[in-house]
């Protein structure tokens, strides 16, 4: 499958990354896509995989003698092939298995190629670039590496988890995270003062990943099984007033449960918060939004309304308050504390296709007021599409 990705930055980025790479290797004349070996990317000078064939399984800085002559291509590799053109366009060619490939007039201007695990890497970083100001206060959550900036984790479509420390850089934590059906974080769960990570796998096991304090995680520990009965899981900070961070989970019948933390890598027997929570399709723990030093909860209902549930510090919530409507245009809620540097907890979101008629992947900042409300949204970054979750 071929896709066009037109970005002004694309050519400059591609050129900077490509450097000096081998030119395309000509092959014998062929008349059919079946002539392309598995593990290779092939192109032909004639339509429908006819004429002279080139093949490669490595990045190319130039198609060499095939520049401007290709009319048909097929991708037999397991990677996304990114084709860069002299006109500033980028085309992505997805793995085609035993398919017949495709062609188009765009191939006339394609002159170089790189292989990546995901489509977004053709023009962007694999992770969402993230910037946050240093906060004058310590919220006790959101800062995985302890540098005073709120951090985020991005999962790409290949299942890799990336750590973004708040300075627009990022580094790989590891692969295989597409096996997780829920990922959440809010503060320390082990007693060492470093924020940890919770993740549920496809079998329903809930795992604790203790953080190193340097943007990575130690060997995981099993919290328990049977968590696939939960439709939503949210680490939400201390909700009981004992100074230990807790976990909320809504089951498929609509009951919301509080799992009090022990500070020693496990949770105590659950307590029922209330029913009717199957009307909510997103939960996030933003910390204290009202200024009373108690952790609150944000929940989005199925109509798109966002509600604030003020924490009481006694395992319950006060009367909810409406934040606003239209929040079904958000793909992800990112609650990592203060990100604009004023010492007040904020909310960041990533948009989906419902936002402004299809503007997917916008990272929006909703600055907190400390009074249970948010200021108007500011778009921070427009390049957070084609990810598989931001946490």
Q: Overall mean pLDDT score?
A: 93
- Outline type: elongated
- Cα-based radius of gyration, to the nearest Å: 24 Å
Strand-residue fraction? 35-45%
| Unreliably modeled segments | 6-22
| Helix/strand class | mainly beta
From the N-terminal CA to the C-terminal CA, the straight-line distance is: 30 Å
Strand order of the largest sheet: 1-7-6-8
The major beta sheet can be summarized as: 4 strands, antiparallel
Tell me the number of helical segments per DSSP (H or I, 4 or more residues long): 1
Helix content: under 10%
**H/E series, N to C?**
EHEEEEEEEEEEEEEEEEEEEEEEEEEEE
What is the total tally of β strands? 28
Task: Walk me through this protein's architecture.
With 391 residues, the protein is mainly β. The protein is built from 1 helix and 28 strands. It has a 4-stranded antiparallel sheet with strand order 1-7-6-8, with helices on one face. A 4-stranded antiparallel sheet has the order 2-4-3-5, with no helix packed on it. It has a 4-stranded antiparallel sheet with strand order 11-10-9-28, with no helix packed on it. The longest helix is centred in the first third of the chain and has 9 residues. About 4% of the residues have low confidence.
């Amino acid at each position: 499958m071929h896709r066009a990705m037109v970005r002004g930055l694309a050519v400059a980025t591609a050129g900077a990354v490509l450097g000096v790479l081998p030119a395309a290797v000509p092959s014998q004349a062929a008349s059919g896509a079946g002539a392309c070996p598995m593990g290779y990317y092939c192109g032909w000078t004639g339509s429908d995989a006819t004429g002279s064939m080139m093949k490669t399984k490595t990045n190319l800085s130039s198609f060499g003698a095939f520049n401007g002559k290709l009319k048909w291509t097929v991708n037999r590799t397991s990677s996304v092939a990114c084709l860069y053109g002299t006109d500033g366009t980028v085309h992505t060619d997805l793995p085609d298995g035993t398919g017949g490939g495709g062609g188009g007039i765009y191939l006339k201007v394609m002159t170089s190629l790189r292989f990546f695990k995901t489509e977004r890497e053709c023009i962007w970083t694999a992770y969402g670039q993230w910037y946050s100001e240093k906060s004058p206060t310590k919220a006790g959550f959101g800062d995985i590496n302890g540098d005073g900036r709120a951090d985020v984790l991005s999962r790409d479509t290949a299942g890799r988890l990336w750590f973004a420390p708040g300075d627009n850089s990022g580094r790989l934590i590891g692969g295989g995270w597409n096996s997780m059906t829920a990922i959440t974080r809010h503060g320390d769960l082990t007693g060492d003062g470093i924020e940890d990570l919770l993740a549920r796998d496809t079998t329903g096991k809930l795992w604790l990943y203790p953080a190193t304090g340097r943007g990575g995680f130690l060997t995981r520990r099993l919290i328990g099984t049977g968590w696939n009965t939960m439709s939503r899981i949210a680490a939400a900070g201390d909700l009981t007033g004992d100074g230990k961070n807790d976990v909320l989970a809504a089951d498929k019948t609509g009951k919301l449960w509080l799992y009090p933390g022990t500070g020693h890598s496990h949770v105590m027997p659950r307590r029922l918060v209330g029913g009717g929570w199957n009307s909510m399709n997103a939960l996030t723990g933003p910390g204290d939004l009202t200024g009373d030093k108690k952790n609150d909860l944000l929940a989005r209902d199925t109509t798109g309304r966002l509600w604030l549930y003020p924490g009481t510090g006694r395992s319950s919530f006060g009367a909810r308050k409406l934040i606003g409507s239209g929040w079904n245009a958000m793909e992800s809620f990112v609650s990592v504390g203060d990100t604009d540097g004023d010492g007040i907890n904020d909310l960041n979101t990533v948009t989906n296709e419902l936002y402004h008629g299809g503007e997917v992947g916008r990272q929006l900042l909703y600055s907190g007021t400390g009074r249970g409300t948010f200021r108007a949204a500011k778009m921070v970054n427009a390049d957070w599409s084609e990810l598989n979750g931001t946490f």
